[in-house]
Amino acid sequence: MENRKNFFHLHLISDSTGETLISAGRAAAVQFSHCSPIEHVYPLIRNKRQMSAVLEAIDREPGIVLYTMVDQELAALIDEGCSSLGVPSVNVLEPVIGTFQTYLGPLSRRRVGAQYRMNADYFARIEALNYAMDHDDGQMQEDYEQADVVLVGISRTSKTPTSIYLANRGIKAANIPIVPGAPLPQALLNAKKPLIIGLIATSDRISQVRGHRELGHVQGFDPGDYTDRASIVEELKYARMLCARHNWPIIDVTRRSIEETAAAIIALRQKLV
Questions:
Q1: Are 13 and 67 in contact (CB under 8 A)?
Q2: What is the longest distance spanned by two Cα atoms in the chain?
Q3: Res 19: pLDDT
Q4: Which of 81, 94, 116, 164 has its CA 20 to 30 A from that of 136?
Q5: What is the mean pLDDT of each run of 10 residues along the chain (273 residues)?
Q6: Alpha-carbon gap, residue 262 to 90, rounded angstroms
Q7: CA–CA separation, 253 and 234 (whole Å)
Q8: CA 273: distance to chain centroid?
Q9: What's the confidence (pLDDT) of residue 108?
């Protein structure tokens, strides 16, 4: 029998970028594997006219409504509008703010998009992101001493996306490919500051990922060896040997999401740095 999924409309209303809502909505929706959300995202909703248009859109395609709204009058409009339409609505941040308020006392003030203020942390994230892009795939090898983390691993062990995710947490991360027979940069071996971590995965997983990626035109490159499991096993042995030789910790990314890999790296930094 054909496996069909049901779909539902998920309306995400925010007075800021909507990123918090998107993450919350997807985290909840993924728990219901038999249904898939059709997302409708409404960012930067800050007046009654905009809210009226959003409620009309919900009326056309009813579904679950999640929102984050600092303005209490606009929040009330959502609750009243959704109630009249017969659709559920949840103010995602309000229970969390209520818990904080119970513990910490009254709010100082409500601020739209406060988490995106251009403070020192914001600029640190931008600097880390620029560093990750400049030092992707073994580029700009002369200043690894400035890195917080350097990820090493054979091709398709999620080095680049993990580096970018860490950058969004303000962590400067470079990544370097491990290629059997090719020495690692001396600048990396001389670096004292960064935490160097090896990323590995099972040969089956790497072969599968490589098989779904287009390969660049590299002189002398053998696409057969690239996806061949026996060759990948040898690459992984070489990578493990390098990490053992230099006493670098290893993280197996086979069953980890990028977020989970980054969390493991952050935990290692807190333990070892």
A1: yes
A2: 68
A3: 84
A4: 116
A5: 72 89 90 91 92 95 93 93 96 84 74 58 86 93 94 96 92 96 93 96 93 56 77 96 96 94 92 73
A6: 30
A7: 18
A8: 23
A9: 55
Q: What's the rounded Cα separation, in Å, for the pair 58 and 5?
A: 22
Of how many residues is the chain composed? 273
Angular region, 235: left φ>0, alpha ψ -120 to 50, beta rest? alpha
* Spatial distance between the Cα atoms of 36 and 6, rounded to a whole number of angstroms: 6
Q: What tokens does 128 get?
A: 């880390």
Structure tokens at 48: 């009654």
- What strand order describes the sheet that includes 250-252? 173-177, 149-153, 195-200, 250-252
Give the whole-angstrom CA distance, residue 132 versus residue 162: 10
SS3 66: strand
User: Which residue, chain included where needed, has tokens 């090719």?
Assistant: 182
- Using the structure block, give the residue that is written with the tokens 């993924």: 30
Give the C-alpha separation, 141 to 174, whole Å: 9
Predicted confidence at residue 18, as pLDDT, reads 85
Report DSSP state, residue 109.
-
- CB-CB contact of 207 with 254 (8 Å): no
CA distances from 82 to 45, 87, 91, 92, 239 (A): 16, 5, 12, 15, 56
Give the C-alpha separation, 76 to 81, whole Å: 8
The pair phi, psi for residue 176, each rounded to 5°, is -135, 130
